[in-house]
Amino acid sequence: MDDSTRARLDTARRRFSPETVYLNTATHGLTPDTALAATLRLTHDVAGGLFSPADADPGIERARAAYARLLGVPAERTAIGSHTSQFVGTIAASLPSGAEVLTAEREFSSVVHPFLAREDVTVREVPLEHLAEEVGPNTRLVAVSAVQSSDGRVAPLEDLLAARTAHGARLMVDVTQAAGWLTPDADRIDYTVCSTYKWLLGSRGSAFLTGTDEALAELSPLAANWYAAEDPWRNLYGGPLPLAAGARRLDLPPIWPAWAGLEHSLALLEEVGEAAVREHDAALGDLLRTSLGLEPTGSAIVSVPLPAGGMERVTTEGIMVAARDGRLRASFHLYNTEEDVHRLVKALTS
């Protein structure tokens, strides 16, 4: 890592004020100071009767454009919403009766449950490492996370893209645990969904959907609403609903406090550059693994066995991690350092 990259990372780190050793971005990212200030301004304006909803629209559009740049797609193919499960539900509703959905074993629930809720759709779960080879002529959709929430394994997206093309299926990728440090090029992916409150440093209640033109054309609004109109503020009452062009016809009304700071969080990530973020985050994950005698994997999410009393020692040391399936999950981002890793290793092994 060159000096310029280190300087950008150091500058970005100063935008955060953790009060713990925070190694839990896979649960929720920290809020940078610029995003916090914007959110507090909105809260103050709401409390004082100064908030005008239409005034939030330009910031939402800047966030939409920044997210689209990050994923390498046009803003016109990017919809906004509140939660990934809403968009996955929209995709699930588009499937014909009898369709097969292929997904990874132990996949995060928001990726799977909207399909399981359809009794006329078959959901087949297979090991992540065999997902691409299991795509077959009956597969209508492959649904998978780019990075697994439970343990940080990375999906074989290139193999899945090839298998999708070979069998005429669609590919839906949840990038919630990847966007910001391992963002895939979404231009070739039929659908991506993302909640922003992990590595994108947003708030819960803001989410995105992207897709190819052909795949998006297959979707109908599951919850048609005024914000999906071409001119939202002129379509608040009655019909008809003149839907916007492109992905905006799938927009869901914004939860304004969740969007107030997002453009600032995305701007910070853009300033640092994803290549630098990826190198930094993955290096810390691999440092933890090698320090515990494990092979490096290049993931910012690490899942390791919990020794007896390990979680109690970690908690006592003021280190924030997560427990998943009886294992410790640590996850790393801009605000973390090698010293954080050393403190966790000491707590686990002492």
Topology:
Layout: H1 3-13, E1 21-22, H2 33-47, H3 57-71, E2 78-81, H4 84-93, E3 100-104, H5 109-116, E4 122-126, H6 131-134, E5 139-145, H7 157-167, E6 170-174, E7 191-195, E8 207-211, H8 213-216, H9 256-259, H10 262-272, H11 274-291, E9 301-305, H12 310-316, E10 319-320, E11 322-324, E12 327-331, H13 338-349
Parallel strand pairs: 1-10, 3-4, 3-5, 5-6, 6-7
Antiparallel strand pairs: 2-8, 7-8, 9-12, 11-12
Compact description:
By secondary structure, the protein is α/β, with parallel strands linked by helices. The chain has helices spanning 3-13, 33-47, 57-71, 84-93, 109-116, 131-134, 157-167, 213-216, 256-259, 262-272, 274-291, 310-316, 338-349, and strands at residues 21-22, 78-81, 100-104, 122-126, 139-145, 170-174, 191-195, 207-211, 301-305, 319-320, 322-324, 327-331.
Q: What profile does the largest beta sheet have?
A: 7 strands, mixed
Task: Tell me the helix content.
Answer: 25-40%
Which structural class best describes the helix and strand composition?
A: alpha/beta
Strand order of the largest sheet: 2-8-7-6-5-3-4
Estimate what percentage of residues fall within beta strands. 15-25%
Give the mean pLDDT.
96
Shape: globular
Number of DSSP-assigned strands = 12
Gap between N and C termini, in Å? 31 Å
In sequence order, what are the helices and strands, one letter per element?
HEHHEHEHEHEHEEEHHHHEHEEEH
Radius of gyration: 21 Å
Contiguous runs where pLDDT drops below 50 for at least 5 residues: none
Count of DSSP-assigned helices: 13
